[in-house]
Amino acid sequence: MNSSALTNALQQLTSLAEQAEGASPRNLTSVSTSGFAGELQASLQRINQLQQTATSQSNAFQAGSAAVSLSDVMADSQKASIAFQMGVQVRNRLLTAYKDVMSMQV
C-alpha cells in the first residue's frame, strides 16, 4: 500500500468520524459517494430503517392492531437485531483496521 492510498483512507475515516459527531466535514478531497463511504452510509441507513420498522410493528402490535401479527413483529425484530449486530461487527473491524494503519511506521 502506498502513501497516497493510506492518506486517502485516513481522510475518508476522518470525514466519517466528523460526520458521526455532527460536525461538518472538511473538504480534504472530493470523495466519491459511490465508493466505500457511500456503501457504508447506505448500510447504516438500512439498519436504521429496519430498526424503525421493528419498533413501529411492535408498537402497533402492543396497541392491539389486527393488521400486525406476532410472527411479523418477531421476524422484524430479529432482522433489526441481526442487522445491528452486523453493523457493530463492521464498526469493530473498521476500528481495528484504522488502529493498524495508525500504528504503521512510515
From TrEMBL:
Superkingdom, taxonomy of origin: Bacteria
Keywords in alphabetical order: Bacterial flagellum, Cell projection, Cilium, Flagellum
GO cellular component: bacterial-type flagellum basal body
Record's signal peptide: none
GO molecular function: cytoskeletal motor activity; structural molecule activity
Example GO biological process: bacterial-type flagellum-dependent cell motility
InterPro entries: FliE
NCBIfam families membership: fliE
Similarity-based family: Belongs to the FliE family.
Protein name, entry field: Flagellar hook-basal body complex protein FliE
Classification lineage: Bacteria, Pseudomonadati, Pseudomonadota, Gammaproteobacteria, Pseudomonadales
